[in-house]
Description:
By secondary structure, the chain is mainly alpha-helical. Helix content is about 80%, strand content about 0%. Helix 1 packs antiparallel against helix 7 and helix 2 (about 45-55) packs across helix 3. The model has no long low-confidence stretch (mean pLDDT about 95).
Amino acid sequence: MKNVPYSFILRRLATILAIVTLSLCLTAAITGILLSFYYEPTAGGAYNSLRIIKSEIPNGWMIQRIHQIAGQGLIATSLVEIVVMFLGEKFRPSWLTAWISGILLTLSAIALSWTAMLLDWTQLGYWRFQIELGTLEVIPVIGSLLRDILTGGGAVNTVTVAHLYTLHSYVLSIGALVLAIIHLGGLLLQEKEEKQTLMETEENLSFSE
Ligand code: HEM
């Protein structure tokens, strides 16, 4: 069997993981848009609308479950991708583009999950969010400003749900999609450059023989 270099396997694996990441991102975005048809971003309304989505809307429970799985899957695959890329490092501009976009994508995926914490308006989400706000507040200088921006005045209410929903469904989801496309593009470019280098080396070898 042909001896395939370890670094080649890692870089091919990185490209495959980038395709999986982009697919998960697209799945989450599409199911998110479907959820938004019935979801009501208000305190109380969020809980009721999700209950209706899960129990009364045809296939609503499935769309919501797919959205959850794709969102959590995105965090898991993008974290594995960072490790794979680190092990198969190749400091070319295309690799660096993929590396930086990969890290930003992982951070966006975590932020998407974080902003979704309050979106279901359950007891668990509400109190978890209060604890997280307490942690944010102790950040020097910007802590209380961050709390005010996120909550929309300090208290956790309908305005907070609306703020988190906007960040989740517009800012972060569009950002994650763009980053996933740049990430895959960088890795595909790397594969193309490597193929070219390999062909040039083979040509040079056949000339010298
Ligand atoms: C890249 C795109 C997206 C990702 C990765 C993503 C990820 C997530 C995650 C991880 C959750 C929490 C699920 C859980 O309970 O574990 C969530 C919930 C939610 N997302 Fe997204 N989301 C995306 C786009 C969108 C969009 C475009 C919308 C609406 C326009 C949306 C609406 C919602 C809603 C309403 C919830 C709360 C539903 C629930 O708690 O089950 N999402 N999302």
